[in-house]
Write a structure and sequence with these properties.
heterodimer; A: 76 residues; mainly alpha; 4 helices; B: 202 residues; 11 helices; elongated
Chain lengths: 76, 202
């Protein structure tokens, strides 16, 4: 039989993307409930996603905002 | 907008009514597009190599969007429509500028980054804290090191919150390609992140 943790690893990213089928999702969650090793990695991968999503960049400059508004086509 | 009253519009020649209606639609389009500019810039900043480049891209995108607003279908995703213009502009520029073909960096296994971080911090028991050992600068730098094709998909899906289907439409590639690039791109990103952490240690 396949190593259940290796199988869980394969399902991890699709699980986080919410694209597993219902049956696969339940299977993944059942394994995660019972496996501390995978659960740690799951928590890490999940927080990494959040962290990347929040990757900060400078906000747009006020002057660019003005330039964008100035691009509007005037009414005539 | 001033606008004619209903009575005046009824008396006006049909042509004038049509023109007035179109002007109204256009103004609404422009306002909705401008309201999205912060979000568009945020994605652009990660797609482009520098802040200046991102600002140029956003400006050119809006100039183009305002000119071709008629091709936007009301009721569809305006943010995706704007990003489609922007990624096309960005890809054109990239191709023009690209000197040598980009080599694809090595991918790591899915857990490579976790293993590296845990390894260099024996006491790590709290996974949410482990991730905090990465600085936001690390993320931005590592992302910039991911080759274009992969980065575009990561930025759209993982930062811009677009669905796979939206990303496929924006980049004009099949959804299967979005998924495979995302898969490989995330691994490349982790490898880049792990490398930057290891550098900090040594």
């Amino acid at each position: 039989m396949k190593d259940p943790c290796a199988h869980c690893e394969e399902m991890m990213q699709p699980y986080l993307d919410h694209i597993l089928t219902e049956a696969e999702r339940l299977e993944a969650e059942l394994h995660l409930d019972g496996c501390e090793w995978c659960r740690r990695r799951y928590r890490f991968e999940e927080s990494l996603r959040v962290y990347v999503r929040q990757a900060v960049t400078e906000t747009m400059s006020a002057s660019l905002k003005q330039r964008l508004s100035a691009l509007r086509i005037p009414l005539n | 907008m001033g606008g004619a009253t209903v009575a005046e519009m009824a008396e006006a020649p049909p042509d004038a009514t049509r023109i007035a209606a179109e002007a109204r639609d256009r103004v609404r389009f422009e306002e909705e597009a401008l309201a999205l500019s912060d979000q568009v810039f945020r994605v652009a900043r990660h797609l482009a190599g520098s802040r200046d480049e991102a600002e140029d891209l956003v400006q050119e995108t809006y100039a183009r969007a305002f000119r071709s607003w008629r091709s936007f279908q009301p009721g569809t995703n305006l943010r995706a429509w704007l990003l489609r213009i922007l990624t096309n502009l960005n890809i054109d520029r990239g191709r023009r500028r690209q000197r040598a073909p980009q080599t694809t960096p090595l991918e790591a296994n899915d857990y490579y980054l976790y293993d590296k971080l845990a390894e260099t911090d024996g006491s790590a028991t709290d996974e949410e804290r482990v991730v905090e050992r990465l600085s936001q600068d690390d993320i931005v730098t590592a992302l910039a090191a991911v080759p274009h094709d992969f980065r575009d998909v990561i930025v759209l899906v993982d930062i811009g919150d677009f669905s796979y289907q939206d990303a496929a439409n924006i980049l004009d590639i099949p959804i299967g390609t979005v998924m495979s690039r995302l898969h490989r791109g995330r691994r490349i990103l982790k490898r880049e992140l792990a490398d930057s952490v290891l550098e900090d240690v040594t």
